[in-house]
Amino acid sequence: MSATAEAVAPAPTKAPPPPSHGVNTPALFATINVVKGQPELAKFQFRAKSAWLAGTHMQTTMESFSGAGGEHVHKAPTVANSDHPAVLCGEDCGPTPVEWLLHALAGCLTAGIANIAAARGVTLTRADAEIEGDIDLRGILGLSDEVRNGFKEIRVRFDIAGDAPPAKLQEIVRQSVARSALFDMLTNGLPVSVSVKA
After folding, report:
1. Which residue, among 49, 103, 102, 59, has the nearest Cα to 80 in the 3D structure?
2. Which superfamily is assigned to 5-42+95-188 in CATH?
3. pTM above the 0.85 mark?
């Protein structure tokens, strides 16, 4: 989802590279070509349903989504728990919501790296990330109007290796950042609406 046609499509006369490091490259290029001819298939909607359990513990299920002209169901639903650690008045039944955001960013960037590398004929042997986000809790605790509620900075460090020179591997990471949905949302913002049924 992180790589687009302009990011990975080969010249029209070239055949796509064979599958590499778990990426079905022929299917990736076939998808790009179909969407290029039928842009309406690019419209997707992802969904999550959440339920509060107790205290700061909640659980989210991700099971279905729409896209490519129809409704889809994942092979199996994914259930994710979120909580606060004891030091933040929770029971530590799962990562904090802000840790899930770091996970999502890592997942989006890594998927892009894998797809772009495979499309460019580069076989990866490692694509590991360390992500840190700095937050000052005075904002969400209502102790300061001068401190934002969320992260003030996020840093991502990739350790990447494969059968390409370092400069090419670095370019693959840069291209993934340029096409990442999560990076775009975090750095450019987006409208978010909240409604209430009480």
Report:
1. 59
2. K homology (KH) domain (3.30.300.20)
3. yes
